């Protein structure tokens, strides 16, 4: 049956569409950064988290800038060919843009950026679809970390729980997840809930914490009675942090500042790792350089896909808000 010309699709969303002006702005930002910063890095992202990316932007904002956008739009900003690239060999960098990736414009040297990316990882709560790294089994008995008000929610997540004298109790052993199998949404929510429930009036870290090499205290005069150390002669059987302790520059694990939530993630169950991998770079002094070989592209595939990408990019730039 032929399509009726009178049928019109009416969108009920109040979100404004990102049209031609928004795409042109990304291209303009990339061109401005090319002239401003001497080094450009293309990186891939695993387990993208907006909150962690925001922290990276703050950390690098003095002499660098991260740019994300549609891959075809970023390619247009760098130049798809030698004729439209703003600098020599930038089109080679544009050809490597595929998958979930971004651009880093910076004044820092190549060695410094590559070393940073190799050492940088951040733990985040696992989400549905993440493959469990260990089997988590809950024993039968009381679950004192949870409030009685959350017991119905635990049952909704599939846990065999009941209330006994106002205490959430697991009336039989329950396997939350199995190593090697992907997490369901319910399993991921419970694992996050379990770790967050450990933030009560006191936060305890067991014998695994070794004070001395791992824990550095600064501005001890400000800690006062908020920080209580037990078995100080052994340096670290238990560490209790009260409600009033504000983690600023006072508590450090190694050289890295950790908040309470970040400390929880150190002892969490299956976690996801957020990291950046530098694929290639371009410098004003040395031009284009590949750091990790591009395994997804072939010579024939590049030749066929190049024209297709150019046509799709042209269509993107010709879109309007109508």
UniProtKB/TrEMBL annotation:
One Pfam family this chain carries? RL10P_insert
What keywords are assigned to this protein? Cytoplasm, Nucleus, Ribosome biogenesis
Q: Output the Gene3D superfamilies linked to this UniProt entry.
A: 3.30.70.1730, 3.90.105.20
Q: Which GO terms describe its biological process?
A: nuclear-transcribed mRNA catabolic process; ribosomal large subunit assembly; rRNA processing
Compartments, as annotated in UniProt: Cytoplasm; Nucleus, Nucleolus
Q: Please list the residue ranges that the record marks as compositionally biased, kind Acidic residues.
A: 304-322
Give the span(s) annotated as Disordered. Answer: 292-322
Protein name per Swiss-Prot or TrEMBL: Ribosome assembly factor mrt4
Q: Which organism is it from?
A: Pseudolycoriella hygida
């Amino acid at each position: 049956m032929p399509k009726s010309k009178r049928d019109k699709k009416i969108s009920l969303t109040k979100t404004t569409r990102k049209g031609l002006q928004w795409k042109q702005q990304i291209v303009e930002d990339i061109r401005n950064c090319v002239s401003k910063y001497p080094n450009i890095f293309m990186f891939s992202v695993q387990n993208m988290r907006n909150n962690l990316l925001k922290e990276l932007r703050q950390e690098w904002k003095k002499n660098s800038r991260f740019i994300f956008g549609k891959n075809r739009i970023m390619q247009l900003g760098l130049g798809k060919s030698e004729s439209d690239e703003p600098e020599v060999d930038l089109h080679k960098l544009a050809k490597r843009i595929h998958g979930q990736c971004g651009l880093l414009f910076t004044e820092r040297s190549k060695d410094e950026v590559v070393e940073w990316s190799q050492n940088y990882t951040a733990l985040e709560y696992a989400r549905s679809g993440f493959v469990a790294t260990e089997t988590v089994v809950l024993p039968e008995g009381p679950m004192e970390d949870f409030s009685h008000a959350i017991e119905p929610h635990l049952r909704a997540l599939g846990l065999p729980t009941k209330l006994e004298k106002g205490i959430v109790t697991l009336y039989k052993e329950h396997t939350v997840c199995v190593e090697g199998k992907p997490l369901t949404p319910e399993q991921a929510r419970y694992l996050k809930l379990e770790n967050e429930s450990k933030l009560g009036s006191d936060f305890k870290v067991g014998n695994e914490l070794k004070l001395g090499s791992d824990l550095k205290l600064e501005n001890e005069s400000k800690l006062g009675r908020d920080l209580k150390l037990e078995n100080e002669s052994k340096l670290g059987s238990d560490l209790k942090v009260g409600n009033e302790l504000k983690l600023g520059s006072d508590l450090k694990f190694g050289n890295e500042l950790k908040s309470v939530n970040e400390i929880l993630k150190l002892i969490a169950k299956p976690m996801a790792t957020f990291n950046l991998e530098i694929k290639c770079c371009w410098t004003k002094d040395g031009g284009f350089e590949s750091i990790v070989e591009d395994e997804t592209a072939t010579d024939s595939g590049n030749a066929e896909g190049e024209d297709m990408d150019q046509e799709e990019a042209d269509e993107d730039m010709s879109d309007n808000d109508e």
